[in-house]
């Protein structure tokens, strides 16, 4: 039994939904179909989720919402028409949106979540209607009824494994299940959305809950590539990689699969396959627990920017018990997560995403570190650093990889500000100036992939 998730571009128009139906029809083991809200049909287009966010904002500002509402309904109407479905389903969708708009505006976050979730929820109804229309027996299932349980932390919505037993029963439902992605319900029945792109997470949860044979994640590219195709010309495709490798690449900007979506599949060892709705014959990229990494220790190169460094120096830091904890406690008080902590004997740097910093908290952090930890030097470099990440399971078994990477970077003339090899040794991270990012990526690609034809 397979779970298939179709992303925004895969369900953006009637034409795309017809492709989805053909994919589902071609394999009877494709039992549970998780859908996103309609995404972009062309470059300048707007995603339905973005239209819904505008609708929620207008409602919260107590404005007339007719235009914003019509923009959303028109998208569904044109899809329904293109699929030959008649008016009934568009009316159901419009009524649903009006009902959501009439709910209490007091809790802005709850209200916005309910409006945002309408994108996938109504799309699932529409897709189920179309499947039945063409003779594919299907039913829409609401995540509340199915038991997709989430925690009660609006700022950090996570699925709860307690919901898995109920979700598992989806296996026994007749026909094809069409399930909306992106949201679940708390124990007390409150709707909560995951963060953007979160339908991948819903698909992974359902796949884990039913212990699917495969979780197919359909998007608009043939596979995951070894490097960003907008930076490197025609990078090599990855045929097989491990969960850990995908996690590292997703962290550093590979947006093809949501970085929070791996965990449920990983915990129950459900293989994930990234496939293309527009070219379903292509094998895609398979994500599994292990791969033979002898031929290619490195699987990919990624980079993400927008990092700052908190640098701390204190003579004899190494002898001071609890120094790291006290430093991180200051960040905890400020509600700032940290990414890496490269350290020396007497110094420690904490790499932070710059989006969490502003003038006020930056000043406060530096002052507190100076006063409370009595350090000799502290400064926050709030510049735009990039983290260039080299990823591969073979890293810990191969000597000389770090040297090859460092010499490739030195050939570009760029300065390496920081090197961090996590203890898992699946990745090697180089902190560099943002302006050098592209040339470094190109040079690393040349070093590690120029001779690779296909990457299994
Ligand atoms: N529709 C949501 C978004 O645009 C979730 C998703 O597509 O996965 O972020």
The CATH class designation of the largest domain is Alpha Beta
User: Which superfamily, in CATH terms, is the homologous superfamily of the largest domain?
Assistant: Acetylglutamate kinase-like
Structural class: alpha/beta
Q: Which molecules are bound besides the chains?
A: aspartic acid
How many helical stretches?
Answer: 14
Count of DSSP strands: 17
- The overall pLDDT average reads 94
* Rg computed from alpha carbons, rounded to a whole number of angstroms: 24 Å
- The share of residues in extended strands comes to 15-25%
Q: Kindly report how far apart the N and C termini lie.
A: 25 Å
Structural notes for this entry:
The mean pLDDT is 94. A hairpin with an 8-residue loop joins β11 and β12 (285-288). The longest helix is centred in the N-terminal third of the chain and has 26 residues, at 108-133. By secondary structure, the chain is of the alpha/beta class. An eight-stranded mixed β-sheet has the order 3-4-2-1-7-11-12-10, with helices on both faces. A five-stranded antiparallel β-sheet has the order 14-13-15-17-16. A two-stranded antiparallel sheet has the order 5-6. The chain has two domains: 2-220, Acetylglutamate kinase-like (Carbamate kinase), CATH 3.40.1160.10; 300-449, VC0802-like (2-Layer Sandwich), CATH 3.30.2130.10. It is built from 14 helices and 17 strands. α2 (48-60) runs antiparallel to α3 (66-82). The protein binds aspartic acid.
